[in-house]
């Protein structure tokens, strides 16, 4: 019993069936609660809580419609052609940044004592980190195949965007080509493609009339033409009140048909997310506790082996959290490096446009990792809940049904993929939900969760949509879901029948400590019995004593069997190595005998 308890205490199996194990589990639970509180605190501080309203307000401003003299509506969502794009810049963006520059009768007021900030402030609260920047990505000419009969209509052709077909000439109509590294930029994710390119760059001005003149000149020179595949307007700014950096990208993707797809992208983070609110102290505590957990998990692996280690539930909660912590250390160092570069660019007079892509990318990935860390950390709390019989039985039932559930999910995945491919071929040309395989597969999951507008699909395809939806519901809801319920219910019944009762010492240990601390003022605890339902308050006969004795014997036997299985695994590994070595020796002896026989024949 002593060796089994020693194994359980050191190598991280948290249970409450003995007093020593309960004390060990409670100590680790207290440490884990401290770790969990620090993780939750970091996740709370990394989020800009009013970020949604801040970004939504700026998005509403940039998407606000305007009207030309002929009552034509100009807005971000209504940009469909290249002409609409130039009108949007001239009549919406420039007036929004600088006021009504198209009305030449209006005079601009100079802000008192802030003459050098003219045109640098947006909404009087946000400092522009450089003038607005235009970037264009182009493709090469004549890289597509055109039928000879069409040459009289088109003297040149331009393919869709790809990295191979991208135009990288040094200069295009007075604008220089830059790589992503030179611009310190990240790839642009548009509606159809991802653009891993810098492109041709043109900076606007802080002065409204200079910006307007630049836009009109680019428009007259046809800076955007049939070879253009992407143009975006970038705005980087700093909110002086909240120390908040904001990057806005208005993305206009020009398809080969000449139609433009618009996309709004923005990110905002604090310049120093972990400063203030004990966030730095919590990070240090998390990293220190993570080193301790790394040591514990390494001991478990060395003691029980990888095969048994990956059969435990706690492995899939603790191990991802440990690796995420080490990645966060690297991300924290990277964010500190990019923050220093950002502050250096802010204080430099030689930087026209302060880049934020690398800094915001690092901050966003850091926030995502902290979210996953919080998820796995809270899930790891279930490993300390062995004192709840329901959770113990549920874990055993899931373990018993794992093979059946895995086979079931493979079958459901194949069915989802088949229905997704069928839906894409039937409805993909008309319905947005089936435009490609990922969207169609996600639509299948949404149908299972009843988050799908069937009537919209039925209006476009009355007959095929009805048959498609009926067969899907028949297979998924009436067959597949009932199968998974049967598997889980049978596994739970089997686990309930096979799981032996183990008394919990948790309340006994807590009451015992309270009894000691109060010097006997509180009621002394009662020793846990094997069954609370058949227990009498005043009698403790020989039958109940025998039941408790059997339970204790079962606990000892189970612990000894665990150690025996581990030792048998080690012996099995040694025998396998011995067998492999014997096979190698026999093969070498046969090879040597064969060589000797060949030598004798030659002699």
Automatic annotation (TrEMBL):
Entry's Gene Ontology BP terms: detection of mechanical stimulus
Spans traversing the lipid bilayer: 244-262, 274-293, 313-333, 368-385, 405-427, 467-492
Give the GO molecular function terms: calcium channel activity; calcium ion binding
Task: Provide this UniProt record's keywords sorted from A to Z.
Answer: Glycoprotein, Membrane, Transmembrane, Transmembrane helix
Q: Is Membrane found in the keyword set?
A: yes
The compartments listed are:
Membrane
Domain Polycystin, which positions? 76-269
Q: Please give the InterPro entries that the UniProt record associates with this protein.
A: PKD1_2_channel (IPR013122), PKD_2 (IPR003915), Polycystin (IPR051223), Polycystin_dom (IPR046791)
Listed disulfide bonds for this chain?
144-157
According to the UniProt record, one GO cellular component term is:
membrane
Identify the residues that the record assigns to the Polycystin cation channel PKD1/PKD2 domain, covering every copy: 281-494
Residues in coiled coil: none
Please report the record's description of how this protein sits within the membrane: Multi-pass membrane protein
Pfam short name (any one)? Polycystin_dom
Q: Give the protein family.
A: Belongs to the polycystin family.
Instruction: Tell me what this protein is called.
Output: Uncharacterized protein
Record organism: Drosophila navojoa
